[in-house]
Predict the structure.
Amino acid sequence: MSVILETVDEPFEPFEIRRPVQQTSALVYASPHSGTRYTERFLRQSRLDPLTLRKSEDSFVDEIFAAAPDHGSPLLCALFPRAFVDPNREPYELDPSMFQEPLPEFANSRSPRVAAGLGTVARIVANGEQIYDARLPVSDAMNRIELYYRPYHAALAELIEQTQDMFGHCTLIDCHSMPSMGGPLERDAGRQRVDFVLGDCHGTACAPSLINTVGEVLSDLGYTVVNNIPYAGGYNTRHYGQPAQGVHALQIEINRALYMDEERIERRPGITRLAEDMGTVMSALSDLTARSLR
């Protein structure tokens, strides 16, 4: 089976912002893992076929949340793939075993994400396969971080700041998907997952009303929902979710079996209903954030 990839030359635009005609909501939506632009250099460096590389993507999540501008909110989408550089990590979570030269002293090489092979520049894809046969130059990691990771976060920080200036507060919804079964390196390995996992970093990243509202709306729509297990929220949720400073963050993980063929990375008809249901969630969030979050 042939898999079509969007191949590009470097450097390329790292993100796009889909803006409403007028921002009327104190919400910012972000899709950090739905990017599909692969460079020829990265494809040559990888030992994996394109389909396997793409299994690290949160495929089509930007489409599922595409109605955000219709609800008065911007949607930030990374255009680079997660396997290339992961914007839901600290800027320098790097595995020294991956590189030809020593890492700079400021690199965090001891985090649990690095140990799992899923640092800022990942060693493995989602199913545990090694991405590279050979060690990379450290300059490769630095270039990916400077050209793609940092511009994405600069754009996200600016959207949050602008929203807070307009409304006095901001809520970030960090949009993700998850495999329908727990992966080999995860604590729920081999187990079937619920439809949605909501992550608020165990109550520290947002007001309780935020996660409760999303959970109630999804449950009313017929979905199964759990909070914080196995995903409590990644770097973006922890970093930007500062309720005491007026910024709330919630991570939403969607079971891929609801809307796509996980093996072929193809949309299924369920994506249409799911996108409509996310519109219902967005409406509820807009109503909630128009009032005080508690």
In short: The chain is about 30% helix and 15% strand. The CA atoms of residues 169 and 246 lie 5 Å apart. The chain has one domain: 6-289. The longest helix spans residues 138-167.
